[in-house]
Amino acid sequence: MVLGISGLPNAQRYLARSGPDPLDERICQGLDSAAALVVDGVVVAAAAEERFSGVKGTGALPVNAIDYVLREAGVSRDDVDAIAHGFDYDGFRRVFARQQDYFAEVLSGRTVIDALTEAGWRDVERRFRPVTHHVAHAASAYLPSGFGSALCVVSDGMGETEALSVYRARDGRLDKVHSQPISDSLGLLYSICTRFLGFQFNSDEYKVMGLAAYGDPARNRSVFDKLVSFDPESGGVRVNWPRGSLADAELGYPHARAFLAEGAGFTPRVPDGQVHPEEADFAAALQAKLTGVLADLVAHWMEKTGERDLCLAGGTFLNCKSNQILCDLPGVDRVFVQPAAGDDGSALGAALHVAGSYAGSVPFNPYTGPSYAADEVGAELERRADELGLAWRQVGLTEEYFALAAEDIAADRVIAWFHDRMEWGPRALGNRSILALPKGDRIKERINGLIKFREPFRPFAPAVFDADCATLFETPAKDPVRYMLCTARVREEHRESVAGIVHADGTARIQLVRRDLNEKFWTLLSEVKQRTGVGCVVNTSFNVKGQPLIMAPGTALDTFTATSLSRLYIEGFVVWKKSQSS
After folding, report:
1. Which domains, and CATH codes, for the chain?
2. Per UniProt, what is one GO molecular function of this protein (predicted)?
3. Residue 60 half-sphere exposure, CB side, CA atoms within 13 Å?
């Protein structure tokens, strides 16, 4: 019985002492804390701490997530055989000889041991098992993949002293064949560019990915060609920052940003939610360079090792545009990206690595979070509906229930859909989702402006009925499309019928919905297809800007009340506002 945890509980507090700019408040290690429990090789439960605390991306000790995973398994703290942590800085103490106070307060494994002890755990030190960060990432992708052998690539901002590593994985073992240091970090490059464009470091990289679709990479191609290159001799990527560029990280890497401004020939304006050509062109060139060097690196190591299957982990591989190109590479048969590819996923990887086996079914089940019984939902409605101005009716999980939801979608109403266990990772996969008609009237504008309260250039993802996927999209049909981690081109002849999910570059970040993974969501999509002729819906996360994905019924009611959503479908209950008709 292995508990896996991620995060460094003192990191954000230590950074806050320097009074950073709000855009720099996440320039630290150990964010996105989470907990996962593996019992006899089976993933019993996993969840990020942000879903419980409401603090998006928190790196605090995941006390609530830990309590949840133990409760889900029906075990106590003392029943846990090992506590696996997704960092092992103690093996690199000498690297931080000039930062001893920082090491002792933030990086040392002792900080986690002490935090758990303070939280009431006993005998922590004997059970504590630190796992090198990239090994935790690699295990999180390879062990649940179902592949006997594979090439496993890990890329993120940094982990201990490395930023990209390549493993040959076989028979449950991970053998490292390549590693490169933080100075050559692709994740750090992307985050610095995110900050250069005026977005928050270690938070808003996905906005830059979305913005890139509106730009022309040619304008800034030379900037990134000089800065980043693939070395076919070593099989590594080189990021050629001028000396001193990576200094003063807590100030938002000002020297690196000044270098980018000089090369690009402009200083970005404060983001206002609109698409401006200079910023979009810069983002497009960044995205093109990232994708290009990753493709070169993966192709090199696939050929060198002779592997045909590919596993990807680390925050870099939340970039679904790059993942699309990697899935399409010649010689790549299968690809697996674990749904929580970022640092939350290192909790799962650390647990699986220490457990030494994975006994789950394939495909990986991403629904590992809390669920709520109809009785609990009913009690919450009884208690709070009147004060919130809500009306409701319990229909049960009947044919009528799915038909009502499908009719709402077909009638161009935007609904919230809340069922079963919460998703693992950042993407809503049909259990905590906002759903809408892809060809609805001004659907992007309505959801971005009146419901999500976010930038109007942000795209929406489609959830697609498995039988309709190949009809609507040009997709390699590899596993990342199950978890909304890969884009695909929308077929020209169908773009009008699903216009609300087509991004500026003609692609969409799809979720393929299969009955064996999510029968309720699959049933809803089949009902939608009967009414609209297309088994596809807009699927975006049930939350608003700055809020983590919703976990519990009470938060669902509050968020539904505060937005322009038409209906909430939650565990057999239909909820609407009294100001609306039933």
Report:
1. 2-144 (3.30.420), 151-337 (3.30.420.40), 374-577 (3.90.870.20)
2. transferase activity
3. 14
